[in-house]
Amino acid sequence: MLWRASATAISRPPVAASTQPVGILRRLRQSWSKDGEGGGQIYRYDMDAYRRGFVNAREVSPCQLNGTVPADIKGTYFRNGHGKFQIGEDLVLHPFDGDGMVAAITFSNGRAYFRSQYVKTKGYVKEQKEGRICFRGVFGTAKRGGWLRSFLDLRVKNVANTGVLWWNRKLLALWEQGRPYALDPISLSTLRESSLNGLLKRGGVMAAHYKIDPKTNCLVAFGCQIRPVSSKVSVWEFDPSFKLLKQRSFRMPGLAFLHDFAITDNYYLFIQPPLSLHPLPWLLGKCGIGQALSFHPDRPARLYIVPRNREQQRQPHTTTGGRRWLGWASCVWMALGVWMAKGKRRERADGIRCVDLDPFFIFHFANAYEEENGNLVIDIDRSERYTFDLTLRTASNPHPIPKHTPIWLFDQVEKKIPKIELFRYRITTSGSGRPLAYDKRPLLKRFTEFPVINPANVGQRYRYVYGLAGGDPSESAPLQGILKLDVETKEASYWFPDAHEFCGEPCFIPRKTSPRETHPYHSSDPPPSSATQPPLLKAGARRNGRRSSGLFYSASVSPAVPTLTHRRLVERGRGGREQGQGSGYGHGEEEDEGYLLSLLFNGKNMTSEVVLFDAQFTSSGPIARLPLPSFVPHGLHGAFCPNADFAMTQASGGEVMSEHYSRAEWRRVLGFAWLYITSLAKAAPLPH
């Protein structure tokens, strides 16, 4: 099915598309092996074009994009990421230190509406007012005046640049070590720093990753705080109204670098990489705390299996956090305590089971689930060492990056990032009195990151994982192409854009295939009425040349448009299986029945596009490309929220606004009451 998307729309290209290989001998050597064994096609990338994705972006007011998209896509895609890389004359030295910019695309009736805004944190407002960097960055960004200006100044700016959460019709911008910021979901203006109704005291943190349990329709989130001798981890479960249902806290000895986690029906799963903190350079102001971490290849990574059924019900005054910085003396004690505790392990008496794994560093989980025999299956993106030990200015770097130079400008910095690969760990939990054991195997050896799955399979057995892939199968390269992997057959397929184009994290959008299905993610509302849904086709009708296995919705098909050449690759592992065949998930529909959405950055023309893929045929290229009014830098994490279905209407002068702009509730933007859009009371229009 093809969808018109302005002059840049494309149709499905032929299988034998241009690949632009690098090195004939190397290409021949790689083409004979399966990708899961380290082989695969090589694609060219333009590193200069990639570097242009780290330039200050401008904010964009709500506007309608040219072109059309499938009419069954309804909702809003929110994405967060670093958007500011220079403040006055001061340079941000690492993208993770850049202020967050949230972009949003609302889909309604086959149209798309875009807007973007910076998250106006307290630190952002102060630095913009003074026209200089006022805070030290976690990953090396420094204030003016040398290390003496940073001596014992351990304040860290909440950049709110990592993730987004839409829950109970509230939009939050997330960061690793701070409280979330509440945003207006239509204009994206910043409302306030949120304590989650008093759950997070000053200094409390909520991590940027969370899970939504498709069985219970509950939000599962966590936060991790470093304490003098150990790290405190708190896990919360919220119902669709944001009421706290469960809360559990426990400690990990030493430093716990926890960016992501996984859930199953009965467990929370955390992996603690073997890192330790060397606090003296950080305390003296000579580096960021992220640069003061050391990876220990002789120590194991540790898996924590935390039971979900040992929760503590929230008490009226239960809060987490507390003032993080109680003077420089307590900061010194905290850092030294963590350093002294490195490597210490103790047995758990709280029902938590621990498994020592091989040494590795991890950012992201793809998924995890429990097998029928109770064993755990955990799929993760992992690297052999700390991801930043060579790209940051650390003692372990034999060729350190010059001071005051952003890391993306350093020559061949992409080769200094450890190769990240997708692995599967199986944890044996059965057997009375037996110690837990594990085995591992690679699922994909191409450089990959940002794994995502169909949200209906979170914590459950699944088949497909999507993500970003580097152009070189044997070593690190800029994340550029779209990956789809069948974890059962190890069949991997890719779509790579032109050398100067780079895709961002993909987002899976399930296709609305049944009126009885309510996708639980990011939604607490009932399914839409049949009056607003596309026409229902009977089971057995043909779609894309294949007979459907059940009821599904379909929209009208736009005329075909001229084919453009795009690079395509399908690599098959053992038990090769054609993409798109039924997998027996859900109510008879296919697990990959849906769309993939990504923001594509063009470093040659300094433009960005929304690209949409049929998730069953990702290697065939986008089915729609919608140019954005301004470029969006390389980003981090996003989420598609089907119940964020704001009624966007086209106004005079080509501008777009929500119909709720004309309501008096807009005056109450500082409160959350107006966000319950479905229950807005009638009010007089605002005066012109």
Automatic annotation (TrEMBL):
Binds 1 Fe(2+) ion per subunit. Fe cation binds at H209, H259, H364. Residues 514-542, 564-589 are annotated as: Disordered. One of its GO terms (biological process) is carotene catabolic process. Coiled coil: none annotated. Belongs to the carotenoid oxygenase family. This is Dioxygenase.
